[in-house]
Sequence to fold (386 residues):
Amino acid sequence: MNSRKLAILGSTGSIGRNTLAVAKRFPERFSVRALTARNNIELLAAQVQRFCPEIAVVYDPSDAADLKKKLGGKVSTKILHGEQGYLDAATHEDVDMVVSAMVGAAGLLPTLAAIEAKKNIALANKETLVMAGDLVMDKARICGVRVLPVDSEHSAIFQCICGNQRKDVEKILLTASGGPFCNSPASEFGRVKPGDALAHPTWQMGSKITIDSATLMNKGLEVIEAMHLFSLRVDQVEVVIHPQSIIHSMVAYCDGTVMAQMGLPDMQGAIAYALSYPQRLPLGLSSPDFPDIGKLTFQAPDLEKFACLALALEAGKTGGTMPAVLNAANEVAVAAFLEDRIGFDRIAGLIGAVMQQYEPLMNPDLDTILAADAWGRRAARAQLPE
Fold:
C-alpha cells in the first residue's frame, strides 16, 4: 500500500488526536501534510513539531502569530489562518485524503472544496451531510471521490454492508449508548449542569458532541447522515439504545438476516479502517470479553423525553433546508447551555421553536443552504435570554 498523505481538519479534537495516534503508529503508511485547529495553539504547536506538516492553520490571525512564535525556527511549516487557510489545507496539492473532523457547520465548505479537488474523504464531521447531504454525495460521485465514514456507527454500517448488495438492505439499526441521562426522568433535566451532561458513560469526546449525545441530538444527526451515506429513507433507520456500546450498529437485510459490527469503545478502530480501507491495520486493540460483559441490552428511545431526537427525525423526513436549520439552532442552543445561559431542559424547546418558524426550501443549492444556516442561527439567538 502506498503511503497516504493526510490533511487533518480539526487535528486538536478527539478525532484528530486519534487520527494522529494511528499515523504515528504506521509512519510507513501515512504522512501528515496539513493540520488545522481553531484556537488550541499549545497542542497544535506540539503536533506540528512532531509531524512537520507542510502547512498548519488556525482561525484567528493573532493565534497564527502566536503559533509562529511558539514554533520559532524549529520547523519549516507554513502557518495560515482564516477560512481561506482551511480551504488551502483541504485542497493542498500534496494531499490525497482529507480527514474532515472540524466541529459543526464550519466543516462543510472545506469538505466540499476537498471533494472538488478530488481528495478522498474520511468523514467525521456529520454536519456536512446533515446540512448538504444530497449536494455533497452528488459532488463526490461526479468527482469520483470516496466518502468513508469515521463515526463508529457509520463505520459499523459500512463494514456490515461491504460484500453485500445495497438493494438487499431493509433497514439499519443505529445504536446509541443513551448518554448519561438514559435512565433519568425528564423532570430532572432542569437541574442538569454542563458538568453533568459532559460525563458521558462510554466515550471520550469534545464538549459539543458530548452534549449532543446527552440530548440524543447526536443520534438524530447520525440518522440524517446515514440517510445520505447509504441512500436510505428516514423510516429505514431505526435508533436502538444499547448502553454497553459493544455493538456499534447493525444492518437488517430483506431475508431477515441482521449483521452487527462489534468492538470495545475505541475510535481508533473506525478511524484506521477509513484511512486504510480496504485493508485493516494491526492496531492491537482488545476484542470484547463476552463472558465478562455478561449481557447486551437494548431498548427503544423515549422520543418525548429526548425531544431533540424527535426533532431531528422530523427534519430528516422534511428534508430540503430543514436539517440545516435544525443543526444551526442546535449549535446555538448547545453553546448557550455550556455558557449557563439556558438550562438543559430548554435546548429542545429552543430548537423546536426555530423549526416552527421556518418554511423549508427543497432541492437547495449551496448558497441556499448557507442562507438557511445563517437564518437558523439568527432565529435561535433571538430565543436566548438577554
